[in-house]
Amino acid sequence: MSNSVRLSVEGMSCASCVGRVDKALNGLDGVEDASVNLASDSAEVTYSDKLSVDDLIKAVKGAGYDAHEVLDRDKQMREQREQQAQEMRTLKRQLWLSALLTLPVFILAMGNHVVPVFSEWVHHSLGLQTSWWIQLVLTTVVLAVPGARFYKLGIPALFRGAPDMNSLVALGATAAWGYSVVATVFPTWLPSESVNVYFEASAVIVTLILAGRFMEARAKSHTSDAIQRLMSLQSKTARVVRDGNVTEVDVAELGKGDEIEVRPGERIALDGEVSSGDSYVNEAMITGEPEPVHKQKEDKVVGGTLNEKGTLRFKVTATGEGTVLAQIIRMVEQAQGSKLPIQDTVNRITLWFVPAVMLVALLTFLVWYFAASESALTFALVNAVAVLIIACPCAMGLATPTSIMVGTGRGAEMGVLFRQGSALQALQQSKGVIFDKTGTLTEGKPTITDWITVGDFDEKEVLTSAASIEAKSEHPTAEALVNYAKDQNLKVSEPDTFEAISGLGATGKVDGKTLYIGTSELMQDNGIALDNEPDDAKGWSEIGRTPIYVAIDGKLAAVFTQDDPIKPSAKELIKRLHANGLKTAMVTGDAESTAKRIAKELGIDEVVANVKPDGKVDAVKRLKKEWGQVIFVGDGINDAPALASADVGFAIGTGTDVAIESADVVLMSDNLTVVQQAFALSEATMRNIRQNLFWAFAYNTALIPVAAGVLYPFFGILLSPMLAAGAMALSSVFVITNALRLKTVNLEK
């Protein structure tokens, strides 16, 4: 049996940290999958009964980090926001202190570059040695107080043989500081031409990286905005009706069956079914649809939505983790914590990246020490420190998860829930889209257009009996037949027996009579002759309408047909998919003539008709072989096998039907334009990830050689440790800021 847990991981600061935690968890016998996310400081783990949560936490601690299980998401989100706020306050204080202490060091060391006579003034007024001692004291305080965070994390990681970005900063800053201390206190230990100090490099490195950390923390706090907004929709209290009295109570005290009163302007506390009242409810925060939905008796309401006009009373049907909103939050969290296939490659690279950088820094030092004729030690130190600082892999670790978090959050806001973050990548590799018909391309609410009673059967008796059987079915055609009977003021009774026959129809007994209602295949399977089928009914197939038969006690009693209107958004969606080079198909249990009529009207490429649910799976498999990766769009319940067999399954989960385990993507609205928006969001997110990864890798690939000094022999160009620190800090901020652009990207194209 598989178990899932979300761990909050503390102490991760870069991609190499993610790689080590990921390796520690996935290395455990019994862990089926582990996805570690730097942007949310979390790990989603699926594991077998061989392990316990304590085993997982122990593995994380063994890798040098701390972890604890997230039991209460609300509490964890509050704690995370408080921690983020506290971290930003701490970073701000440390940054200001570091900047104030660094400024005089920088002025004393670099002032002559701005004012050429400044160095002469320092020599005459303070003296060079005094200037160096002032810089030593101030820089030491910078490293010991605001810079202590790098040592607390970096040095233990170094001793564990698992260096991270903190290790690189600690080594680089200490190397520059240590060399400068020797030059100040024991100058005779160094060659005369190498007696120089680099206190300003050490202090500025710490200040700039703290500045980058502060900006990174501030930007990072916005990546979880979508989850926070969803959580803010959860009501804390509700008005419960008990013994005729209305009392305000805590939502946690409510249970299924409780009657809740909600007034205009209030949020609906939990999922339920309207028992009385009439109102319009704004469900935009759930479905993405801006138009308020009319609600009256027996209609479903969803917790978190806003009651706009009238007063409603409803019976609670779901509480706690069973509510639609709780499921949405869980889906978004899972998607945000998931790992794209591309991230595995990044993790494998970055796991060895920091040790490789340290080796490059050592080689840089040795090459310059032996190659430079004058000031060899100075050149060796400066270039080695620049390599250590420029190569911190923070941006690599943030490149993918920040884009996933913001992208899936944006999807949730428009009613597209990515249950699997990997679907974002898979969508871009798809070659075709396969649609179910009823309820997907059509409204799923057919109406009876024609009814013909056969022979001596009484029309009202046949219709009443057929409607009584179909009242037990959830099929849209059954609902249409029941409504047709009620419109004629016929009373539907309780059938003696009922059985649904998948893909064919239904059978049952009413008042001692045996009825079969369904396709011609159902009639033939049960030996019911269709010889006396009315001529008018025979012509229905020619115009694309499927005849549906009613037989009583083995004889054909009536024939009827229906019309299921095509959704207004369907035609535009098919047109856009074709414009993007995607093939389209429709798979349905309806008759071929009906299916072809719908397909022709919409411009769909291929039609597979007259199939049962297992036939849909066969059709999906065949089209996968012919086209490549395919997407299946269905209603998420009777299309579950087809959804699961497609590379990406889109389930239209309107209202309370969101708990669809077989789908990768759940569409909260039945408006098909969101399918195209999901494609556009996928494209934008993957483009964003590629931009981030290019920046992160290209930045390191291009600047490590520059920092090592390869351009100096040809162009006299060296990269100072200060510039390296600034560039490194800005790279992480760039990656997060670029990811945040997904919040406003245009998805209508």
UniProtKB/TrEMBL annotation:
Record localization: Cell membrane
Molecular-function annotations in GO: ATP binding; ATP hydrolysis activity; copper ion binding; P-type divalent copper transporter activity; P-type monovalent copper transporter activity
Record field: transmembrane: 95-118, 130-148, 168-189, 195-215, 349-371, 377-400, 693-715, 721-740
Chief location bin: membrane
Keyword Transport: yes
Cellular component, GO, one term: plasma membrane
InterPro entries xrefs: ATPase_P-typ_cyto_dom_N (IPR023299), ATPase_P-typ_P_site (IPR018303), ATPase_P-typ_TM_dom_sf (IPR023298), ATPase_P-typ_transduc_dom_A_sf (IPR008250), ATPase_P-type_domA (IPR059000), HAD-like_sf (IPR036412), HAD_sf (IPR023214), Heavy-metal-associated_CS (IPR017969)
EC nos: 7.2.2.8
One annotated GO biological process: copper ion homeostasis
Record membrane topology: Multi-pass membrane protein
Key words of the record: ATP-binding, Cell membrane, Ion transport, Membrane, Metal-binding, Nucleotide-binding, Translocase, Transmembrane, Transmembrane helix, Transport
Domain (HMA): residue spans on this chain: 3-68
Top-rank EC class of the record's enzyme: translocase
One Pfam match: E1-E2_ATPase
Protein family membership: Belongs to the cation transport ATPase (P-type) (TC 3.A.3) family. Type IB subfamily.
Name of the featured protein: P-type Cu(+) transporter
Organism: Idiomarina ramblicola
